Amino acid sequence: MKRKRGVIILAGVLVLLLVIYFALQSWNSEQEAKQEEEEEAAVVHVTQTDAEDITAISFDVGNGSIELVKEDGTWYYSPDRDFPLNQTYPEDFAEALGDITAERELVDGDELAAYGLDEPVYTVEYTDTDGNVTSIYFGDTANGDYYVTTGDTDSVYTVASSLIDDLNYQLSDMAVLDSFPSIGSGNLVKEVITQNGETTTYDSEDEEQEEDIAAIAGGLGAVDLTDAADYSVADEDLAGFGLDEASRTTVEVTYTEDDEEQLLTMYMGGSDEDGNRYVMINDSRIVYLISEEVCSNILNN
DUF4340 domain: which residues (predicted)? Predict the structure, then answer.
């Protein structure tokens, strides 16, 4: 009987401990939520716009004017909507600009001129889905932060300089460039060159062209599509690069990839002042700059 009573007492103690445990868990959760609310209330928001609601962004932080617009969920470079824009950049800009928090807010501060805000160093603007335009002005720096104000208020804040770093890109940094296949002697099947109405063919099955194929493969393997002269060339501008049909050299390369034959078409035009050739590939509208040496190898000159 005593043993049974002891079990009942232990069970009661266990239930009590469980009640206390869950009560403490609930209390801790409430305290954490309360602390988060207090911390959020203490944050000063210079801007507070959902990134998804931002439809246009413009700024110049020393790398040239950047003007972006979003339509149907896709971002474009406004002056040239055919520019191959990497969507990650405007999405990141919208995230950074839509929720700018202040390091501190100046209370009873001086005139804007005292902070370099009468003639801002940088001006950044964004537009939301309702057509509201938010202008953010950056003035002098203080201890690594920028003095900032917005177009609809005289309030002055300091914000981390990393905000400008988040925007510190040239347009060329935001381009999606073409990829060039991996081609070497082992997978180069054939190359056909058409220039001035004449055609020259190099075939890997022709033993007498073994050295030619090796030289051509060396050139193709050295192609680097990182430097562009134009990101969305118009047809009427092709002649300026020597890439119009009447002037260009066409190179058709057959190679294997995963045991299947693929075709790559390259167009070679004139040269820039540094001796690099203007080149386009397949149906891309990007004009690349490739060294004369690499092009000569591809053409087996």
Answer: 75-209, 211-292
Neighbours of 272 (CB within 10 A): 13
**Each residue of 155-176: pLDDT tens digit?**
999 999 999 999 999 999 999 9
Minimal CA–CA distance to 242: which of 227, 229, 225? 229
SS3 (DSSP) at 257? strand
- Classified as helix, coil or strand, 82 is coil
Distance separating alpha carbons of residues 80 and 155, to the nearest angstrom: 36
Which CATH number does the domain 188-299 belong to among 3.30.70, 2.30.30, 3.30.420, 2.60.40? Answer: 2.60.40
pTM for this one? 0.79
The DSSP bridge partners found for residue 142 are 145
Q: Which residues of 62-86 are buried (b: 16+ CB within 10 A; e: fewer)?
A: eeeebbbbbeeeebbbeeeeebbbe
How far is CA 53 from each of CA 87, 161, 286, rounded to the nearest angstrom?
A: 15, 24, 31
The DSSP code for 217 is H
Number of H helices, E strands in the chain: 5, 15
Helix (H, G, I), strand (E, B) or coil at 196: coil
Identify the CATH number of the domain defined by range 51-174.
3.30.1490
State the Cα–Cα distance between residues 117 and 140, nearest whole angstrom: 7
Q: How far is CA 60 from the centre of its chain?
A: 16
